[in-house]
Write a structure and sequence with these properties.
With 378 residues, the chain is an alpha/beta fold. The chain contains 16 helices and nine strands. InterPro entries: AB_hydrolase_fold (IPR029058).
Length: 378
């Protein structure tokens, strides 16, 4: 039987022993690549997740969604016709921390459905080149994305983006480091008519509002960078809303049927590996033609480590990307999609993805592609 630690890449989960000393500015401890056991309690995210049950018990959850309209093909996954909007209450600043060439502000605000959102906004010290919405994966945190003293699989991507001149919004994706916690929270929210997936995607999408309120900057070109579970969020957010923002997905490209029939599952039937999205009846929830038809012509770049066991060739990595690429080609947009299979594991690279994203954000094509969203039927 495979150990849970050996499954960390496949589960998109990082757990393990760690020490406490570390970066006082971002309240991070040294974790030697397995950061959940230090970051979640130290940063208060475990208690934050448990507070959702108190919010539900007090009757403060509401099935209200008035944000961007969601395409019909994605509504079963989002459990609503629209995204949740941030409420009209002010954004609460929890702390500010200077960093090397940029600063980080941690904030909290409420969505209209009653679920609170916490996240970090990275602000460059110089001129803003654009805004990037960064979705982290399981067992990581926004803070860890902005610090490279002891990196996890996010490889301090937020810091690198900020130092390149981009404002970065990274919300905390609700979970406490494992699939069980995410599924349990999703089930509790669903019992009150609230979609955990809508909450996560809405939290990511709120970056433009957070950026405008904290920096005063508006009208920035916006890109999306999703990693591991965050890659699902990036794909689904763009497919659901048709905003056509240049998007990078890191650490996800596979055939879900092959994954669910693989030895990873059959040898570990007592471990919860399936996510709540596996139980949705939507056809466009996985990488493939159905999702690609909703995404195209959104500029799309995928990056996968060649030793990423969760997205191995035998799990359909190459054939699923070919399926997505064929949709772009048949639609006349083969130049808007690319992939980098780099030398690495289940982790962020950014070597080709960051220049690709920057180029698309600065290109006149950004405005042309962005205008297409108004012509797409929702």
């Amino acid at each position: 039987m495979i150990s849970r630690r050996a499954l960390s890449g496949l589960l998109m989960t990082l757990v393990g022993p760690s020490s406490r000393a570390g970066n006082e500015g971002l309240a991070l401890g040294h974790c030697q690549g397995s950061c959940a056991n230090v970051d979640l309690p130290t940063l208060g995210y475990d208690q934050f997740c448990r507070s959702l049950f108190d919010i539900a018990a007090s009757g403060r959850l509401h099935a209200v969604a008035t944000g961007s309209e969601i395409r019909g093909e994605m509504r079963s996954l989002f459990r609503a016709r629209r995204l949740y909007r941030p409420s009209h209450d002010e954004i609460r600043v929890l702390w500010r921390a200077p960093a090397d060439g940029f600063s980080v502000v941690k904030v909290e605000f409420d969505l209209e459905c009653g679920v609170p959102v916490r996240g970090c906004l990275g602000i460059p010290g110089g001129e803003f080149k654009g805004l990037i919405l960064l979705g982290h994966g399981m067992a990581s945190t926004p803070e860890r994305c902005f610090d490279d003293a002891d990196k996890d699989y996010m490889n301090a991507l937020g810091k690198r983006l900020c130092r390149d001149g981009y404002v970065v919004w990274c919300p905390y994706i609700i979970q406490i480091g494992n699939q069980e916690s995410q599924n349990n929270i999703a089930a509790m929210l669903a019992s009150h008519g609230v979609s955990a997936h809508n909450v996560s995607c809405a939290s990511l999408d709120a970056g433009e509002i957070v950026c405008r309120k904290l920096t005063g900057a508006s009208g920035l070109n916006v890109g999306v960078y999703g990693v591991s579970w965050g890659a699902f969020l990036a794909l689904h957010l763009e497919a659901a809303t048709g905003q056509m923002r240049p998007t990078v997905v890191s650490g996800y490209m596979r055939d879900e049927k092959k994954f669910l029939m693989s030895s990873v599952i059959t040898r570990n039937l007592g471990v919860e590996l399936a996510a709540y999205i596996h139980f949705s009846n939507g056809r466009a929830k996985y990488a493939g033609a159905d999702l690609a038809y909703l995404l195209c012509p959104c500029p799309l770049f995928a990056e996968i480590g060649n030793r990423d066991g969760a997205n191995a060739m035998e799990l359909g990595r190459d054939e699923k990307f070919a399926e997505v690429r064929s949709v772009y080609a048949s639609s006349g947009h083969p130049h808007l999609i690319d992939i980098d299979v780099f030398d690495g594991v289940h982790e962020v690279s950014g070597k080709r993805a960051r220049p690709w994203l920057y180029e698309h954000l600065a290109s006149p094509l950004y405005q042309q592609t962005s205008r297409l969203k108004g012509a797409i039927a929702l």
